[in-house]
Write the structure tokens for this entry.
Amino acid sequence: MSSNFYLTTPLYYVNGEPHIGHAYTTILADVLTRYHRLFGEREVHFLTGLDEHGQKVSQAAAENSKTPQEHCDEMAVLWKDVWEKLSIAYDDFIRTTEPRHEKVVMDFLNRIYEKDDVYVKKYEGWYSVYEERYFTEKDLVDGKDPISGRPVEKREETNYFFRMSKYQEWLIDYYEKNPDSVIPKFRLNEVKGFLRQPLGDLCISRPKSRLEWGIPIPWDDDYVTYVWFDALINYYSATLKPPKGKTVTWPADLHLIAKDILTTHAVYWPIMLHAAGYEPPKQIFAHGWWLDKDAAKMSKSEGNVIRPLDLADKFGADTFRYYVMREMTAGQDANFSIDGFVKRINSDLANDLGNLYSRLAKLYHQFSWGKYKQSGSKQDNFEGKLTEQLNAVRDKVKNEIEAIRPHKAIEEIMALVRELNRYIEHWEPWKSAKIKPEATGYAMLEAIDCLDWVAELLAPIMPERMKLLRQWIKNDVHIPLKGLHLFPRIDLSELQIDEQNGNDAVNHGGSTVSDEISIEDFKHLDIRVGLVIEAKKIKGADRLLSLKVDIGNEVRQIVAGIAKSYNPEDLKGKRVIVLVNLKPVKLRGALSQGMVLAAVSGKDIVLLTTDGNVEIGVEVS
Ligand code: ME8
């Protein structure tokens, strides 16, 4: 009997910063952890971490003129920082360069070597640096890596191979007997389909002459371990030396991954474990991808691109967590769009939940309902079945979480929120408090109790804000939260300011380089030298300035998000660079006919200008 519920995320490559995809899996793990704790049958242990070896990481380090270890150390700080910003409360964070892991990988290798499950062979194949693996000629699609679509190179090497094929029948049989070990079900079918083809053996080494950045092969100094063989073992090695005060035992209850790494997890990993004499993981859940394609195009043409993690910085981790959990049907792909984000947050959080709270809080104080709290007399106005109904919602949420359907769990809770709003509308307490104050008081205290249930059930998704809300409820005098707004409405036009320093929204695969454009694409941009003839603040928008800019043949009004870096009086007479053929938009009610270009570094914004005098209206090319 395992001591606790042990769940993991993949170990992410440190060749780039986290994007929405990494954030999604990690938030999902955190949300499941918090729900399991809430429903509390067993202790929970949540592991995440970083995959630091291999060619990809070594290349990223070289590009940054760092040693691989320096690069990894810096990236580890960055990743942990992002997880902290997103309120990720992991129990353990493992890095594959830690001695506690490296030692276990070498032991693992020795075990399978001693069993004669490893042999040496000269091999020729097509190697994808991106996927860190070889493909056969017939695997390639249009001569490229069939998974990432990136180039491959022909390589010939002598390497060590793990006899994976020897265990193919065992694995097929295992999946027949354990049909829930890969979910959703259609993913298990994909795995079974894959296992209908003969399974090759797995190349588990890399010659040091080509790649030094890896865990040494214990019996041969000339080789390091293939990065996947090293990384997968983390899930096991982390159980041997957990952080102080934590306990965890193998096997893992749940590996969370996306569909891109299904084969490595559902085929290589159980076979590796079985060969080494360990149990396979109990369950693997493979979710879909956040797609950028359509959303990114739409955003670009609208000019509203933004980094997803910027949303968390700007609107708080909780709203971002809510959005990704509610928007993705776990298992399927989902499209990210800024419009979708704003709509979702405004309708569910600002309208439904935020209003429920602010109405109750306002009326509670207006009518001093606190005085009914002590009397002990309780009525059940909620159609006579309040507790039953709340328990039913709680059970449904528990079931949905066990089936890894957080979006459904959220739907159940939000349905209750809408019902509470209807209940209040039905009572019209702002009127009835004057006619039948006591009955209204009791009914509304009951609504506040229900809100507490809601807050408890939503806390795993939005830990920070629900904590505040529950503090308000638990507090005897119900001191109002600052500003009474739990979830302020998001104004899309505020967001459009950031479009100008935004980046492509979603980036599967961790590349940080933008798509290339041709010179023809560039020629579509009409950029000219302009002269600022007037600049003033915009009422109610503390980051915006409204500029009048002479662009040679006309004067344009341009709204720019530069008020934090420039005083209006310093701008008059300044030469600026203007994108002239940008579709006009209204920002905070003011028409903006173009965009002034600026260099943006964090919060600092520096306007671009000309190096010497040129005529106003001259084209920039
Ligand atoms: O594969 N949508 O690391 P990785 C949803 N180091 N999830 C996404 C995503 C997207 N667009 N992009 C990435 C590796 N992910 C290996 C794993 S494990 C022993 C080694 C998430 O940095 C998702 O969880 O490429 C996916 O499986 C993982 O990041 C891949 O992260």
In short: The mean pLDDT is 87.
